[in-house]
Amino acid sequence: MSKNVLIITGDAVEALEVFYPYYRCVEEGIDCTIASPVKKKLQTVVHDFLPEMDTFTEKWAYKIDSHAAVEDVNPADYDGLIIPGGRAPEYIRMDKKVQEIAAHFLSEDKPVGVICHGQLVLTPIREHVKGRELTAYSACQPEVEAAGATYINELIHVDKNIVSGHAWPELPLFMREFFKILGVTEGVKA
């Protein structure tokens, strides 16, 4: 039986954090939909570090099509949710429909994968993350804790149906753990 995965993001999504999960899902025979506040071609970005800077840099990267506007998404149609990082989570988290979609996956105990700054999307729905354990990009620790979750200082952390990751270097392990809770054996078509 084929699985359906939803990726919610927007402009300024970290390129690797949207492309890698999308193509890994496609590679495994999983139907994968990218949804954003408006159906459009999204501008991705690349975040990296320079030795002379205390924070990351940002450059434009490839564009990627979103397949649907979040208003047109019925979360009941999907088996799992992935929320990539970058700067997109800062603004998509304010969208009430994005909040409703994320809340659906958490309340239904469906697999949720959040990486880097993606955890910011969960912070407005604190009733669904209170008491949970999440890792995230270290600068997101205050928001994770303000939402009532426990910040775990690990590169990857699994708490029941949530796989959380620190940043894009952890994508292979992040997707491996996400596929486990999704019930997909890698290399075997779902």
Automatic annotation (TrEMBL):
DJ-1/PfpI domain location: 3-179
Q: Which InterPro entries match?
A: C56_PfpI-like (IPR006286), Class_I_gatase-like (IPR029062), DJ-1/PfpI (IPR002818)
Tree of life domain:
Bacteria
The family classification in the record reads:
Belongs to the peptidase C56 family.
Q: What is this protein called?
A: DJ-1/PfpI family protein
